Amino acid sequence: MAPYLIRRLAGFAATLLAVSAVVFFVMNLLPGDPALVILGIDSTEDARAALRAQLGLDDPPLLRYAAWVRGALGGDFGQSYMFKVPVADLIRERLAMTLTLAVAAMALTVALALAAGVYAAASHGRAGDWAVMAASQVGIAIPAFWLSILLVILFAVVLRWLPPGGFPGWDDPAGAARALILPATALAVVQAAVLARVTRSAVLEVMGQDFVRTATAQGLPRRRILWRHVLPNALVPIVTIVGLQFANLVTGTIVIENVFYLPGLGRLVFQGIANRDLPLVQALVLLFAVAVVTVNLIVDLAYLWIDPRLKGRVG
Amino acid sequence: MLAVAGLSVAFPAGTAVRGVSFTLAAGERLGIAGESGSGKSLLALSILGMAPPAARVQGSIRLGGAEVVGAGEPALRALRGRVAAMVFQEPLSALNPLIRIGEAIAEPLRLRRGLTARAARDRAVALLGEVGLPDPAAKARQYPHELSGGQRQRALIALALAQDPQLLIADEPTTALDAAVAARILGLLAELSARRGMALVLISHDLGAIARVTGRLLVMYGGDVVEDGPTAAVLADPRHPYTRGLIAARPRLDAARPPGTPLPAIPGAVPPLPALSAGCRFADRCALARPGCAVPPPPVAVAPGRVAACWAVAP
Amino acid sequence: MKRRPVNLIFGAALVALVTGAALLSLVWTPHDPVALNVANRFAPASATHWLGTDQLGRDVASMLMAGARTSVAVAFVAVVLGALAGVVLGLTAAALGGLVDDAIMRLADFGFAFPALLFAIMLAAVFGPSLTNAVIAIAFVNVPTFARVARAAAHQVWTRGYVLAARAAGRGRLAITLDHVIPNIAAPVIVQATIEFAIGILAEAALSYLGLGVQPPVPSWGRMLAEAQTLLFLAPHLAIWPGLCIMAAVMGFNLLGDGLRDAADPRLARAR
Q1: Which residue in A74, A299, C110, C171 has the fewest CB atoms around it within 10 Å?
Q2: Could you read off the pLDDT of B85-105 as tens digits, one per residue?
Q3: Does B121 touch chain A (CB under 8 A)?
Q4: Using CA atoms in the order B99, B105, B110, B112, what is the torsion angle rounded to 10 degrees?
Q5: pLDDT higher than 80, residue C235
Q6: B94-118: b or e for each residue (b if 16 or more CB lie within 10 Å)?
Q7: Residue B81 has what pLDDT?
Q8: All domains in chain A, ordered by first residue
Q9: Which residue of A has its CA nearest to C119?
Q10: CB contact under 8 A, B81 and A219
Q11: Confidence of residue B257 (pLDDT cuts 50, 70, 90)
């Protein structure tokens, strides 16, 4: 158990290092001159050279990478070219928005998918099963941003129940919640379509196992058997897909924040791209990739928690 | 307490149980013998109303005063575990791998007997002690994969006993165990039945096991009961050619068989469902077959309390 | 079980519709999809303009046909590039095994840390947003998937009796890969390619919607949606058609992939 954890954590650290290297070296292939971006084309060559020296841009790439990693470990991602403030401050301001959206969407995804998937499996071969499968086929094919637009047309334009976009700030909790309903729903419906299929086939497989017969022979209610005996045994493939979907969710929040004009990290990254704000984009891409890798680690550890038999096998 | 009359279980592919009738008094111990495919497990599942959904069940099964055939899910649940409980063949797969032994036994006690969590836990430990597990309190905290095969089967029996059923159906309970452990489990079943006044149906292809535990024997072939009578009498003086074949095919240590000669075997195997004949189903493998066997033989009394279904044994 | 051929037929029909429209748009569209006619903007559907015109008077039906061309072309190039690179890596991993195998598969694991959009964002930040960058980003994220599929399939082939016999007879790894492995992994790779095609179309639409893909004036479903979104209160119908097209194309390739998979391996069909 402990050696497994140590090995797994070492692998995690190595992956993070590799991710940071890819992000840094891809971003620093930049053919343009950051000093030019910051100072504008009217600046003198001397001023630009001075700034390059000040930013350390003339140092060898490996040295600059080392400096960047050292800073990042301490929470210092350098100065944004565009906003002229530390990147870390920009991220801190907007993290709550994106994190809330992602967590709300993931929770909604799991709730929707488990309900639909278990229901479909329980009514295997009947109309309910067929309806869930057909709906999920449609859900998989809908782009989240188009679904968002449809939701806006229905709930904001036609019914006028919810705002079409924007964010009133956290000081207005009710308004903030209302602003997040449509974005979280749009993200969740699309993801839940995939997860519901996985849930259905995993549950169907477990339903054929002997211990389900034992539970039935005890006279336990069918609902109890499904949720207490079948579903936990079907969780390993479900959790695997949830982990993979988190990557989609991370990029999904980037898209959806732009659809709904939400001031989160996804909007920030586009402002960074538009202004060629390297330190900002670099830090954000790293942050998103780290989130994906971290969730994968959590998924691997969740397996051990789900299935006590695995604890004996890893080592 | 159990009366089966004219029970047939049919699949689209053919009839797997055909016109089976027998009764079982409270506290009686009945063995059901036969090869795989004889319909004995399906018969057992039908008693709890657990035949597969594709099966069409006809006839009558009266269990503890209630009719099972055609009963709805709530009525069946009232019977399962309480009036009749079941122990399955493969104890590892018949226990939910993610639930601790104690919790598995406590669950029906809480849900069905209304015990408090604490009382259910204590009762579970007591039951584990009753089935002869050493250190039951520690075993209750373990997962199925942490027990040995014999211990798992004892735990499964404890689970079946949880709701104090009047009838325990054990379907090949010792097939997955080695001989010494199997003998102890059989002894336990006989002892529990005697001590609790609980009727027992032991389903097995092993005549030795049935001889040790039961007072009455039902021999099945191809979905038919071919012979029915007191276990000792049937084994000592089998009337049906199939019963004779089964007894001859038993490996015995005391047999006066010259070394090197193979065990006598019944030629062939039970044919698949669609291939079963409309007449006597044993006819294609029977040395005594004659043209009249194309008509199903009726059960005939061959001795006091004994019945056989064969044209060749008419008294 | 009875639904299996339905998947295949329905999927193939949608795919034929989308690719047919894309190919047709090369030689003919009802109107010039990029011709502006501000005098005739927001025209309703009519015999001349089947689905009406947009805020700049462009013919919506023609734009959708041209958009199909963009989608299919981007997805096709990205899938072919990704599949080539991925299959070569997967075959190498299976043929050489050992450390090379480990290294390639580690690389593939690591590739999953970069979803297409993140990679496209990096490229856009460095080189500016463009169609080429979108294609590269989508192709890049296909590589690990294809590498895994190809390796898993090739691995099975390598353990078969006739391959062991060929090795014993002194055939080299490259020759065995060409003679035995490639023909036997074609089916799973084609199935995966169909599914990646659907993902590619979705990714192109998302990137173009965000302005990281196809640049104006080249028509694209994703960009049409981005433009329509600013006019939701004025002309909500403009946001309907491009989305339906994306959905039809994605669903078509997904169903086709499912159908092909079931046809290639009936044992798997039951579980889905």
Answers
A1: A74
A2: 999 888 888 999 999 999 999
A3: no
A4: 120
A5: no
A6: bbbbbbbbbbbbbbbbbbbeebeee
A7: 93
A8: 2-73 (no CATH), 87-314 (1.10.3720.10)
A9: A285
A10: yes
A11: low
**CB within 8 Å: A285 and C121:** yes
Q: Give SS3 for B16.
A: strand
DSSP state of B257: -
Cα dihedral C171→C177→C179→C181 (10° resolution): 130
Q: Does the structure show a pLDDT above 90 at B62?
A: yes
Compare all CA atoms of chain C with the CA of A253 and give the residue at the minimum distance.
Answer: C117
B113 Cβ contact partners less than 8 Å away, ≥ 6 residues apart: B120, B163
Using the predicted structure, report yes or no on whether residue B258 has a pLDDT greater than 70: no
- How far off is chain C from A295, nearest CA to CA, in Å? 10
**Apex C253 CA angle, C249 and C259, nearest 5:** 145
Cβ neighbours of residue B47 closer than 8 Å, sequence gap 6 or more: B2, B4, B61, B63, B68, B84, B169, B201
Domain region containing B287: 1-27+35-83+205-250+263-315
In chain C, what residues touch A26 (CB-CB under 8 Å)?
122-123, 126
Tell me if ipTM is over 0.95: no
- Look at A222 and B73 and tell me if their CB atoms are within 8 Å: yes
Q: Tell me the CATH number at C197.
A: 1.10.3720.10
Has residue B172 been placed in a domain?
no
Interface test with B, best of A205, A216, A218, A309 (most B CBs within 10 A): A218
Q: Please list the ranges in chain A whose pLDDT falls under 70.
A: 1, 29-34, 37-38, 312-315
Strands B66-67 and B84-87: unpaired
Both tokens assigned to B153: 């089967």
For residue B3, report the phi and psi dihedrals to the nearest 5 degrees: -135, 115
pLDDT tens by residue, B269-278: 777 777 777 8
Which residue in C114, C67, C57 sits closest to C235, CA to CA?
Answer: C57
Q: Does residue C202 sit at the A interface (CB-CB below 8 Å)?
A: yes
More confident residue, B160 or B34: B160
Mutate to test the interface with C, among A80, A273, A286, A297 (most CBs of C within 10 A): A273
Average pLDDT over residues C61-86: 90
Contacting subunits of C (3+ beta carbon pairs below 8 A): A
Q: Which residue of A has its CA nearest to C210?
A: A255
Question: For residue C38, is it within any domain?
Answer: no
Containing domain of residue C78, as a range?
Answer: 57-271
CA C54 to chain centre: 27
In a domain, B103, yes or no: no
Strand partners for B10: B15, B56
DSSP A223-275: HHIIIIIIHHHHHHHHHHHHHHHHHHHHHHHHHHHHHTT--SHHHHHHHHHHT
C37 belongs to a structural domain: no
User: Structurally, how many domains does chain C consist of?
Assistant: 1
Does B156 reside within a domain?
no
Q: Are A220 and B143 a contacting pair at CB < 8 A?
A: no
- pLDDT computed for residue C269 by the predictor: 45
pLDDT for res B229? 93
Measured CA to CA, the distance from residue A277 to residue A37 in angstroms comes to 8
Contact C115 A251 (CB under 8 A): yes
* Residue at B240 is within a domain: yes
Q: Is residue A156 within a helix (H) or strand (E), and if so which, with residue range?
A: none
Q: What is the mean pLDDT of residues B8-18?
A: 89
Strand B84-87 and strand B167-171: the pairing is: parallel
- Lowest mean per-residue pLDDT among A116-120, A187-191, B106-110, B255-259: B255-259
> Cβ separation of A146 and C225 shorter than 8 Å?
yes
Q: Is C206 on the interface with A (CB under 8 A)?
A: yes
Integer angstrom CA distances of residue B236 from A177, B80, B233, B312, C3:
81, 36, 5, 19, 57
Could you tell me which chain C residue has the CA closest to the CA of A136? C251
Domain for residue C13, yes or no? no
